[in-house]
Write a structure and sequence with these properties.
This protein has one domain: P1 Nuclease. It is 56% helix and 4% strand. It is built from twelve helices and three strands; from the N terminus they run αααααααββααααβα. The longest helix is centred in the last third of the chain and has 29 residues. The radius of gyration is 18 Å and the shape is globular. The chain binds zinc ion. The site of zinc ion has 7 residues, from helix 4 and helix 7.
């Protein structure tokens, strides 16, 4: 969810912000299973006894309204018709998810930061690594990352962005039922998937948006709601699954490399 909060509140529709809690929980549960003992200890030290990585994984969305400046930190608008990310073009003033992962990651272990600053930095990193794996958080088609594209997923009206945040995932099953198979797959491919840089991961997410999110949309005249059914779901679900699994492996790597 980007700039549609006012409209959403007027219409009485709950706004969506990046993967819904289910997606963020899955990403974080995979990462937790892959943390080193040293990283686990540091996480406990930073978060304190009452919170866990899973319990804080959607915190950044909860504070987004009070902290308007952090809104753009959840995504990067790489134009859908461009082959690559360009930080000068797509990330002005470091106001994007790619820059903020680096900034918050450094802050998390900055000895001159306060305990509260380090805790918030950790909570941002956990959330942002998840968010950037939602393909529409790394792409824009002059439609606010799909928020302006009206769709009907089976009989449920919505927009393309929220459909990818949570609409499709909620149809895939409950978090606890999805988790074991996702963890298994993430662990099997961990060595390969945890490679690369945050910039590489953003480009990969962007490619998934080009190929599947927009690429598989039925060709409707502009302005008509896109009817999304079984064919779209069959193309989208494996992408969602893999993006969540990759995000889990990569979040573990970021935390293990940072919290030594
Ligand atoms: Zn978010």
């Amino acid at each position: 969810m980007r700039k549609l909060l006012a409209a959403a509140l007027v219409c009485g529709v709950l706004p969506a912000y990046g993967w819904g809690p289910e997606g963020h929980n899955l990403v974080t549960r995979i990462a937790v299973a892959e943390l080193t003992p040293a990283a686990q200890a540091k996480v406990r030290e930073i978060l304190g006894p009452d919170q866990t990585l899973v319990s804080i994984s959607s915190w950044a969305d909860q504070v987004r309204r009070q902290r308007a400046n952090t809104g753009p930190w959840h995504y990067i608008d790489i134009p859908i018709d461009q082959p690559h990310m360009d930080m000068a073009r797509d990330c002005p003033k470091d106001d994007c998810v790619v820059a903020q992962i680096a900034i918050q990651r450094a802050l998390m272990v900055n000895p001159s930061a306060t305990a509260e600053q380090r805790k918030e930095a950790l909570m941002f990193v956990v959330h942002f690594v998840g968010d950037m794996h939602q393909p529409l958080h790394c792409s824009d088609n002059k439609d606010k990352g799909g928020n302006d594209v009206h769709v009907v997923l089976f009989d449920r009206p919505g927009n393309l962005h929220s459909t990818w945040d949570s609409g499709l995932l909620s149809r895939m099953g409950k978090e606890d039922d999805l988790f074991p198979a996702m963890l298994k797959e993430a662990q099997k491919r961990r060595k390969k998937w945890s490679k690369g840089s945050v910039a590489d991961w953003a480009e990969e997410s962007h490619k998934a948006a080009q190929k599947t999110v927009y690429g598989k949309l039925p060709p409707e005249p502009k302005g008509t709601p896109e009817p999304l059914g079984a064919a779209y779901e069959a193309a989208a679900d494996p992408v969602i699954r893999v993006q969540i699994e990759k995000a889990g492996d990569r979040l573990a790597r970021v935390l293990n490399d940072t919290l030594k």
